[in-house]
Amino acid sequence: MTGFYGFYDLVTGFYGWMTGSYGVYDLMTDFYEWVIDLYGWMTDFYEWVTDFYGWVTEFYGWMTDFHESYPRQQTKQHREAK
Questions:
Q1: CA 29, 30, 31 angle in degrees (round to 5)?
Q2: Is residue 19 part of a domain?
Q3: Are residues 24 and 30 in contact, defined by beta-carbon separation less than 8 angstroms?
């Protein structure tokens, strides 16, 4: 009988270690939540990078349009000034 209760204590102790405060179960769920949060941060960062790339290309397009029209006027003014 002592062997059975020793085994029972071992099993219940292991179960308590698995499910207790800061046990293996808590550590694994904390790690899982951290991985999910990391994935969320990475997707947010990817959205920020793509938005920033969109702003840069839009600014580049605006500057290209501005550059196509402005230098001709400036050179014409320089020619007239001479």
A1: 90
A2: no
A3: no
Residues in the chain: 82
* Nearest residue to 16 (alpha-carbon basis) of 1, 30, 26, 28: 26
Rg value, the chain, Cα: 33
Q: Please list the pLDDT of the chain residue by residue as tens digits (82 residues).
A: 455 667 777 777 777 777 776 677 788 888 999 999 999 999 999 999 999 999 999 998 887 776 666 655 556 666 666 5
Residues contacting 25, CB < 8 A, separation 6+:
18, 19
Domain assignment of residue 9, yes or no: no
Q: What is the total count of domains within the chain?
A: 1
68 lies in which domain range?
A: 24-81
17 part of a folded domain: no
Give CA 54 to chain center in angstroms.
Answer: 18
Helix (H, G, I), strand (E, B) or coil at 21: coil
